[in-house]
Write a structure and sequence with these properties.
With 178 residues, the protein is α+β, with helices and mostly antiparallel strands. The protein folds into two domains: 72 residues, no CATH class; 94 residues, VSR Endonuclease (Endonuclease, Chain A, 3-Layer(aba) Sandwich), CATH 3.40.960.10. The strands form two sheets. Strands 3-4-5-6 form a four-stranded mixed sheet, with helices on both faces. Strands 1-2 form a two-stranded antiparallel sheet. Helix 1 runs antiparallel to helix 2, helix 1 crosses helix 3 and helix 2 crosses helix 5. It starts with 5 loop residues before the first strand and ends in a 6-residue tail after the last helix.
Length: 178
């Protein structure tokens, strides 16, 4: 460890954000690690130069390969996802070389999760926590009709469906697949 791995907070030494992320790399999946980096980036507490530096010094540490890959291939749009499900979906697009969508953008009166404007494709990522009550269910159906009438194809994806990468890549994203 070097001095840049630590900082002082209210008189106490604490590990830097970059070092904390490296420490978490061994126990985290790639998706969890991307979420951690994305959250730190979104909160503007991540010093990318320090993360690159601590990662380059981490040779031999468990998980450093995952972190190096994330740092090398980082796309700022990963930080645009409001939820872990959105970030997971974006990461899946990257993994399968699918053009990345615009995330959390407005079309008319609606904010949509993922949009490929040229393909006129909207993907809504539906988790039970945000889409389980009747009011939200009805609102979602209205949104689908209005967007459909405006020429957009709306596809809805659940947490469970997101686990089926063949379904997502070959069925849901077939219009934007290279």
């Amino acid at each position: 460890m070097v001095a840049s791995d630590f900082t002082m907070h209210r008189g106490f030494p604490v590990t830097s954000v970059a070092r904390t992320i490296l420490n978490q790399a061994a126990a985290s999946t790639v998706t969890q690690l991307e979420s951690l980096v994305s959250d730190a980036d979104k909160l503007q507490i991540l010093d990318w130069a320090k993360l690159e530096e601590v990662t380059s010094r981490g040779k031999g540490w468990r998980g450093v390969g995952k972190l190096k890959s994330i740092v090398t291939n980082w796309d700022p749009r990963l930080s645009d996802g409001k939820s872990p499900m959105e970030r997971r979906f974006i990461a899946l697009c990257r993994r399968f070389s699918i053009p990345l969508p615009s995330v959390n953008v407005t079309i008319g009166e609606f904010e949509v999760d993922c949009l490929w404007r040229e393909a006129k494709l909207v993907v809504e990522l539906d988790s039970r926590g945000f889409h389980s009550n009747l009011k939200k269910f009805e609102s979602d159906r209205r949104r689908d009709v209005v967007l459909g009438n405006a020429g957009f194809e709306v596809r809805r994806v659940t947490h469970r469906q997101l686990d089926d990468t063949d379904y997502i890549v070959n069925e849901v994203l077939r219009r934007v697949r290279p």
